[in-house]
Amino acid sequence: FLDQAKGNLSEGAGELCRTALRDLQQPDGVGHGHPYREVPPEGTIGWYHDLVRRLGEHHPDLVPKAETALEAIVGFRDWLHESGMNAPAGIGQENYNWYLANVLYMPFTMEDIGTIGDRELQRSWAFLELERNKNRDLPRLEPAASAEDYQRRIREADEQVRRFIVEEDILTIPEYVGEFGHNVPWIERPGERRNFWEEIQYRDPRPDHVHAVIPGHRFDMLLKEHDTRPIRGPYYDSGRIEGWALYLEEMFLQAGLLDDLPRTKELFYIFQIARAARNRVEVGLHSNEFTIQDAVRHLVERTPMMDDNVARVDAEIYLREPGYGISYQMGKIQIDQLLADRAIQLGDRFNLKEFHDQFLAAGMIPISLIRWQMTGLDDELRHFWYEGED
User: Fold this and answer.
1) What's the angle, vertex CA 94, arms to CA 89 and CA 96, rounded to 5?
2) With a cut of 50, which residues of the chain have pLDDT below it?
3) In terms of CB atoms within 10 Å, which of 32, 252, 293, 344 comes out highest?
């Protein structure tokens, strides 16, 4: 594969090349998908050294193969150093707008996303400061003091969220839904700053719990596992997945989950700020107005508690995967639109639980298609499929 890459990357993007070199040689500081190590290995190459060492302890017959892979990766690193890649990394406005309309079925342009993202960022900051002022005489939330304290907070959060869903008729929890665990592991970082997710989660697990556990990603994916439809069952749409998860954060906040937890409301607004700031970052990267470092600076300057490591990892994802960074905010806005459309259609017959159940039952297809199915409104689809026709 690496030999093929050397032939295929004849016009490699300079920003992606620099990102690859960094990730090959330095830890990401976040640990996405990595096992825990008290001292994280130095990038991908370091993880292969770690693998070779551990294989020597229990699978020595595999060591030669691992060493061959390590040698190939080091050679690829050296080739990248000498490659001189400097092509633009962003796909450009025209390609980006085509991708939004023809692949993601999102009714936005790159310009729309920048403007909407900026407005959402401003709105979220305003709500955060209003909440902080209201809570000014209350004690601040402190991070968990230990792994045991953290686990206790997770259990309390899970119990409250599940109870609230049932008592307030938020949505249906099928009988096969059990325990899910949590999304952010407990890591002690002596002499090192906690990352953004840890700063939030260790104070109160609820923001990430509703987003990534129940009724967010883990709950959502379990429903998907039980979906046997041949097209909708295996289909994934990032706007539907991440839009739903972000929608849940504000939905629970407005529905009253946090009425007795005013300081936790601040954390929810900080999460909103983080997702809003991503929109300008993604369009900046794909219009080639931002470098990765510009993106990191933008996120850190505009998001409370944000650190360079999380900001950089996020920016790398948005550059590699157009449409992913904006899927949170734009997907959430589409769900807001769908809820309003349905409430207007049904009037007094509108029921929030039925709305959520119908939305989830539609599967993980683009939200514009779910809107068409639930409301019969085809104004967005006419634009996607029959542009230029009456």
Assistant:
1) 60
2) 390
3) 252
